[in-house]
Every structure is written in structure tokens, then in C-alpha cells.
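S1.2 Input.
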Amino acid sequence: MTRPFWKPRGLLDSPRKAARRLRQLRYYPQEHVVTLYLNVRHREIGCETVSIGTLTASLIHPREVFSPALAYRAAGVLVAHNHPSGDPEPSPEDRDVTRRLRQAGEILGIPLVDHLIIGARGHYSFRERGLL
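S1.3 Output.
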């Protein structure tokens, strides 16, 4: 797959910077899953919406996250989704999908850099909480 030239965007070396980049997610009325694809220096080289769910759920599968990562030749992925309720605390399903994405990234050699949950009351970072 040939991609158009993509100028790397800003440095995303902290959950706060990534949450700021994706802050518009807090306004969406249904769950959206967005993946940022990063180069080796943690600069964004691509961004894809990989799933749009319902008011309370979305489907995140490793194949939808990592297929574009391979095309972008990404060195890492950062997954984010919103909670329309406004509460960024992870559900048991969020914890499970993070575990599966981390495992898939390890197998492919493309690490899951973080999984952010964006809510009206801030963000939750699995990396900051020591869960990645």
C-alpha cells in the first residue's frame, strides 16, 4: 500500500500530550476508537479511526489496530477511545482489550505505547497507572 507523504506531527511523549491531541473525542456521543501511529521518536506518522461503537460500547480488535500500523511501518501505537458518560475510568472490557492489544503488539514487534480513555472529566492512561 502506498501512502502519501506524511509529515510527522508533534512529539507525543506523554499521556498529557496525547490526550490534548485527542481532546475532541470527549464531545462525541458514541464511543470512537482512534489509533495514533508513531515513529521511533514518538512522533505521529498516522491516525486512523478504527471503530465507532454505541453509546456504551465499541469493538476493538487487534487486526484493526495493527493492520494500519504495518502499512505505516509504525514503531509504536497509541490507542484512545472516549467514554460518552464523561467518566474516564476503565471498564473490565477496557482492561481486557488493553491486555490483548499489548500481547498482539509484542508478537508483531510494534509496542502498545498507551491506551487512553478520554472523558469530559479528564483522561485515564494505562501507562501512567503502570498497567502497560
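S1.4 Remarks. The domain at 15-47+59-125 is CATH 3.40.140.10 (Cytidine Deaminase; domain 2).
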